[in-house]
Amino acid sequence: MATICCKPKRTSNKVQNKESTYRLTNLSNDGDWSRAIHHDLNIKRRTCTTFIPKDKTKFDRSRSRSDVQCCCNRLHREHSWSVYEDPDIKWDAKLHTTSAYNNAYGYTPNSHANYIRCDMETDPKILTRLMIEVWKVQPPRLIMCIIGGAKYFKLNERLEREFMKGIIQAALKADGWIVTTGFKTGVVQLVGEAIHDHKVTNPRSKITAIGCSKWGATKNRESLVSSKPTSKESGNPSTTNGSKTEKKSEQELDPNHTHFLLLDDGTYYKYDTGDYRSRFVLDAAL
User: Which ranges are annotated Basic and acidic residues under compositional bias (predicted)?
Assistant: First the structure.
Protein backbone atom coordinates (compact mmCIF):
# COMPACT_ATOMS: atom_id res chain seq x y z
CA MET A 1 0.00 0.00 0.00
CA ALA A 2 1.31 3.45 -0.87
CA THR A 3 -0.15 6.76 0.22
CA ILE A 4 1.02 10.10 -1.13
CA CYS A 5 0.73 13.40 0.71
CA CYS A 6 1.26 16.42 -1.54
CA LYS A 7 2.60 19.55 0.05
CA PRO A 8 0.78 22.68 -1.19
CA LYS A 9 2.87 25.14 -3.16
CA ARG A 10 3.77 28.47 -1.57
CA THR A 11 4.40 31.78 -3.25
CA SER A 12 8.06 32.65 -3.73
CA ASN A 13 7.94 35.24 -0.90
CA LYS A 14 6.59 32.72 1.56
CA VAL A 15 9.17 30.15 0.59
CA GLN A 16 11.92 32.74 1.02
CA ASN A 17 10.60 33.74 4.46
CA LYS A 18 10.39 30.10 5.52
CA GLU A 19 13.97 29.42 4.46
CA SER A 20 15.14 32.57 6.24
CA THR A 21 13.53 31.31 9.44
CA TYR A 22 15.45 28.05 9.17
CA ARG A 23 18.73 29.93 8.75
CA LEU A 24 18.00 32.20 11.71
CA THR A 25 17.33 29.21 13.97
CA ASN A 26 20.38 27.26 12.86
CA LEU A 27 21.14 24.93 15.77
CA SER A 28 24.23 23.09 14.63
CA ASN A 29 26.94 25.13 12.94
CA ASP A 30 29.76 22.87 14.08
CA GLY A 31 28.22 19.58 12.97
CA ASP A 32 27.69 18.42 16.55
CA TRP A 33 24.05 17.60 17.23
CA SER A 34 24.40 17.23 21.00
CA ARG A 35 23.39 20.75 21.98
CA ALA A 36 20.48 20.77 19.55
CA ILE A 37 19.19 17.40 20.77
CA HIS A 38 19.67 17.86 24.51
CA HIS A 39 19.00 21.58 24.88
CA ASP A 40 17.42 23.37 21.92
CA LEU A 41 15.04 20.59 20.88
CA ASN A 42 15.17 18.52 24.09
CA ILE A 43 14.58 15.17 22.38
CA LYS A 44 14.34 12.36 24.92
CA ARG A 45 14.06 8.59 24.82
CA ARG A 46 11.44 6.59 26.73
CA THR A 47 12.17 3.77 29.14
CA CYS A 48 10.30 1.44 31.45
CA THR A 49 10.80 2.42 35.09
CA THR A 50 8.98 -0.36 36.88
CA PHE A 51 9.83 -4.02 36.54
CA ILE A 52 6.60 -6.02 36.66
CA PRO A 53 6.80 -9.71 35.64
CA LYS A 54 5.04 -10.41 32.35
CA ASP A 55 4.09 -14.01 33.10
CA LYS A 56 2.76 -13.88 36.65
CA THR A 57 1.97 -17.60 36.68
CA LYS A 58 5.69 -18.37 36.40
CA PHE A 59 6.81 -15.67 38.80
CA ASP A 60 9.00 -17.05 41.55
CA ARG A 61 10.96 -14.81 43.91
CA SER A 62 13.57 -17.53 44.32
CA ARG A 63 14.28 -17.37 40.59
CA SER A 64 17.09 -15.16 39.31
CA ARG A 65 15.66 -11.77 38.45
CA SER A 66 17.91 -11.48 35.40
CA ASP A 67 15.91 -14.21 33.62
CA VAL A 68 12.46 -12.78 34.37
CA GLN A 69 10.72 -10.75 31.66
CA CYS A 70 8.93 -7.48 32.35
CA CYS A 71 5.62 -6.48 30.76
CA CYS A 72 7.61 -4.07 28.58
CA ASN A 73 9.31 -7.22 27.14
CA ARG A 74 12.75 -6.44 28.60
CA LEU A 75 14.48 -8.99 30.76
CA HIS A 76 15.35 -7.74 34.22
CA ARG A 77 19.03 -7.45 33.24
CA GLU A 78 18.03 -5.19 30.34
CA HIS A 79 16.21 -2.74 32.57
CA SER A 80 17.71 0.73 32.84
CA TRP A 81 16.10 1.33 36.23
CA SER A 82 16.37 -0.82 39.34
CA VAL A 83 12.74 -0.63 40.45
CA TYR A 84 11.06 -3.91 41.34
CA GLU A 85 7.37 -4.13 42.12
CA ASP A 86 4.91 -6.71 43.38
CA PRO A 87 3.79 -9.03 40.55
CA ASP A 88 0.13 -8.31 41.28
CA ILE A 89 0.44 -4.74 39.99
CA LYS A 90 -0.84 -4.26 36.44
CA TRP A 91 1.73 -2.69 34.12
CA ASP A 92 0.57 0.54 32.47
CA ALA A 93 2.69 2.40 29.90
CA LYS A 94 1.46 5.78 31.13
CA LEU A 95 2.36 4.99 34.73
CA HIS A 96 5.42 2.80 34.34
CA THR A 97 7.45 4.51 31.61
CA THR A 98 9.14 7.88 31.59
CA SER A 99 11.24 10.07 29.34
CA ALA A 100 15.00 9.93 29.92
CA TYR A 101 18.24 11.44 28.65
CA ASN A 102 18.80 10.47 25.01
CA ASN A 103 21.63 7.99 24.54
CA ALA A 104 21.23 7.03 20.87
CA TYR A 105 21.83 9.34 17.91
CA GLY A 106 24.45 9.74 15.21
CA TYR A 107 25.16 7.76 12.05
CA THR A 108 24.25 4.12 11.44
CA PRO A 109 27.38 1.92 11.45
CA ASN A 110 27.13 0.55 7.90
CA SER A 111 25.17 3.01 5.79
CA HIS A 112 26.05 6.20 7.72
CA ALA A 113 22.44 7.37 7.70
CA ASN A 114 21.41 9.98 10.27
CA TYR A 115 19.43 8.47 13.12
CA ILE A 116 17.95 9.41 16.46
CA ARG A 117 16.04 7.52 19.13
CA CYS A 118 13.06 9.62 20.19
CA ASP A 119 10.29 9.40 22.74
CA MET A 120 6.94 8.84 21.03
CA GLU A 121 5.61 11.69 23.17
CA THR A 122 7.85 14.06 21.19
CA ASP A 123 5.89 16.67 19.25
CA PRO A 124 6.27 15.85 15.50
CA LYS A 125 7.08 19.54 14.94
CA ILE A 126 10.30 18.98 16.88
CA LEU A 127 11.38 16.20 14.53
CA THR A 128 10.53 18.35 11.51
CA ARG A 129 12.85 21.01 12.94
CA LEU A 130 15.51 18.35 13.50
CA MET A 131 15.28 17.28 9.86
CA ILE A 132 15.48 20.79 8.41
CA GLU A 133 17.48 22.85 10.91
CA VAL A 134 19.96 20.30 12.25
CA TRP A 135 20.21 17.64 9.57
CA LYS A 136 19.96 20.29 6.82
CA VAL A 137 17.38 18.49 4.70
CA GLN A 138 15.68 20.59 2.03
CA PRO A 139 12.05 21.39 3.01
CA PRO A 140 9.84 19.13 0.88
CA ARG A 141 7.37 20.16 -1.80
CA LEU A 142 6.10 16.59 -1.96
CA ILE A 143 5.91 13.86 0.67
CA MET A 144 5.25 10.23 -0.22
CA CYS A 145 4.37 7.94 2.67
CA ILE A 146 4.88 4.32 1.65
CA ILE A 147 3.95 1.41 3.89
CA GLY A 148 2.78 -2.17 3.49
CA GLY A 149 3.98 -5.74 3.10
CA ALA A 150 5.21 -7.35 -0.11
CA LYS A 151 2.25 -9.76 -0.18
CA TYR A 152 -0.09 -6.81 -0.77
CA PHE A 153 2.04 -5.43 -3.60
CA LYS A 154 0.55 -7.29 -6.57
CA LEU A 155 2.46 -6.11 -9.64
CA ASN A 156 4.50 -8.03 -12.15
CA GLU A 157 8.23 -7.37 -12.29
CA ARG A 158 8.07 -4.83 -15.12
CA LEU A 159 5.25 -2.79 -13.57
CA GLU A 160 6.90 -2.98 -10.17
CA ARG A 161 10.11 -1.59 -11.63
CA GLU A 162 8.27 1.24 -13.40
CA PHE A 163 6.26 2.07 -10.28
CA MET A 164 9.38 2.34 -8.13
CA LYS A 165 11.14 4.36 -10.82
CA GLY A 166 8.20 6.78 -10.82
CA ILE A 167 8.46 7.24 -7.05
CA ILE A 168 12.17 8.04 -7.31
CA GLN A 169 11.67 10.50 -10.17
CA ALA A 170 8.82 12.27 -8.35
CA ALA A 171 10.97 12.64 -5.23
CA LEU A 172 13.86 14.08 -7.24
CA LYS A 173 11.79 16.59 -9.21
CA ALA A 174 9.93 17.98 -6.19
CA ASP A 175 12.64 17.86 -3.49
CA GLY A 176 10.39 15.18 -2.08
CA TRP A 177 10.63 13.13 1.08
CA ILE A 178 9.93 9.40 0.97
CA VAL A 179 8.63 8.32 4.39
CA THR A 180 8.42 4.62 5.24
CA THR A 181 8.59 2.21 8.18
CA GLY A 182 12.33 2.05 7.54
CA PHE A 183 12.59 -1.73 7.87
CA LYS A 184 14.17 -3.96 5.24
CA THR A 185 11.03 -5.92 4.44
CA GLY A 186 8.03 -5.83 2.12
CA VAL A 187 7.41 -2.87 -0.14
CA VAL A 188 9.85 -0.74 1.89
CA GLN A 189 12.67 -3.07 0.89
CA LEU A 190 11.63 -2.63 -2.75
CA VAL A 191 11.79 1.14 -2.32
CA GLY A 192 15.25 0.80 -0.82
CA GLU A 193 16.41 -1.32 -3.74
CA ALA A 194 15.04 1.27 -6.19
CA ILE A 195 16.99 4.01 -4.38
CA HIS A 196 20.13 1.89 -4.52
CA ASP A 197 19.72 1.20 -8.25
CA HIS A 198 19.27 4.90 -8.95
CA LYS A 199 22.33 5.87 -6.89
CA VAL A 200 24.51 3.37 -8.76
CA THR A 201 23.98 5.26 -12.02
CA ASN A 202 23.44 8.70 -10.45
CA PRO A 203 25.79 8.86 -7.45
CA ARG A 204 25.38 12.62 -6.98
CA SER A 205 21.59 12.51 -6.77
CA LYS A 206 20.12 13.36 -3.37
CA ILE A 207 17.09 11.33 -2.36
CA THR A 208 15.64 11.85 1.11
CA ALA A 209 14.24 8.58 2.45
CA ILE A 210 13.08 8.73 6.07
CA GLY A 211 12.36 5.63 8.12
CA CYS A 212 9.89 6.25 10.95
CA SER A 213 10.73 2.99 12.68
CA LYS A 214 10.05 1.46 16.08
CA TRP A 215 13.13 1.54 18.30
CA GLY A 216 12.13 -1.57 20.24
CA ALA A 217 11.69 -3.60 17.04
CA THR A 218 15.01 -2.55 15.48
CA LYS A 219 17.53 -5.35 15.12
CA ASN A 220 20.97 -4.74 16.66
CA ARG A 221 19.76 -1.53 18.29
CA GLU A 222 22.42 -1.93 20.98
CA SER A 223 24.99 -0.89 18.36
CA LEU A 224 23.20 2.47 18.10
CA VAL A 225 23.49 3.26 21.81
CA SER A 226 26.36 5.46 22.93
CA SER A 227 29.14 3.43 24.57
CA LYS A 228 29.84 6.26 26.99
CA PRO A 229 27.44 7.15 29.82
CA THR A 230 25.69 10.38 28.86
CA SER A 231 23.85 10.95 32.13
CA LYS A 232 23.20 9.40 35.50
CA GLU A 233 19.74 8.61 34.16
CA SER A 234 21.04 6.87 31.05
CA GLY A 235 21.20 3.47 32.70
CA ASN A 236 22.82 0.47 31.08
CA PRO A 237 23.09 0.22 27.29
CA SER A 238 20.20 -1.65 25.72
CA THR A 239 20.85 -5.22 24.72
CA THR A 240 18.88 -7.72 22.73
CA ASN A 241 19.34 -10.99 24.56
CA GLY A 242 15.72 -12.02 24.24
CA SER A 243 14.37 -15.38 23.16
CA LYS A 244 14.36 -16.68 19.58
CA THR A 245 10.66 -15.81 19.36
CA GLU A 246 11.41 -12.23 20.32
CA LYS A 247 14.28 -12.08 17.82
CA LYS A 248 11.71 -12.75 15.09
CA SER A 249 9.95 -9.57 16.21
CA GLU A 250 12.97 -7.49 15.20
CA GLN A 251 13.79 -6.17 11.74
CA GLU A 252 16.89 -4.75 10.08
CA LEU A 253 16.90 -1.10 9.08
CA ASP A 254 16.99 -0.66 5.33
CA PRO A 255 20.54 0.46 4.38
CA ASN A 256 19.36 2.70 1.54
CA HIS A 257 17.42 5.15 3.70
CA THR A 258 19.11 8.45 4.53
CA HIS A 259 17.47 9.21 7.89
CA PHE A 260 15.85 7.25 10.71
CA LEU A 261 13.48 8.51 13.40
CA LEU A 262 13.45 5.59 15.85
CA LEU A 263 10.24 5.98 17.82
CA ASP A 264 10.44 4.77 21.41
CA ASP A 265 7.46 3.98 23.65
CA GLY A 266 9.50 2.15 26.29
CA THR A 267 8.70 -1.37 25.04
CA TYR A 268 10.57 -3.99 23.01
CA TYR A 269 9.49 -6.28 20.15
CA LYS A 270 6.41 -4.27 19.12
CA TYR A 271 5.87 -2.50 15.79
CA ASP A 272 2.88 -0.29 16.51
CA THR A 273 3.59 3.44 16.25
CA GLY A 274 -0.05 4.53 16.30
CA ASP A 275 -0.67 7.57 14.12
CA TYR A 276 2.74 9.14 14.77
CA ARG A 277 4.04 8.64 11.23
CA SER A 278 0.95 10.31 9.77
CA ARG A 279 1.21 13.21 12.21
CA PHE A 280 4.86 13.72 11.29
CA VAL A 281 4.04 13.72 7.57
CA LEU A 282 1.15 16.16 8.00
CA ASP A 283 3.28 18.52 10.08
CA ALA A 284 6.16 18.44 7.59
CA ALA A 285 3.68 19.18 4.79
CA LEU A 286 2.46 22.43 6.37
Answer: 244-256
- Reported pTM: 0.83
pLDDT tens by residue, 256-286? 999 999 999 999 999 889 999 999 999 998 8
Furthest-apart CA pair in the chain: how many Å? 70
222: Cβ–Cβ under 8 A, 6 or more apart, which residues? 237, 238, 239, 240
Alpha-carbon distance of 238 to 80, in angstroms, equals 8
Query: Among 230, 207, 219, 208, which Cα is nearest to 262's?
Result: 219
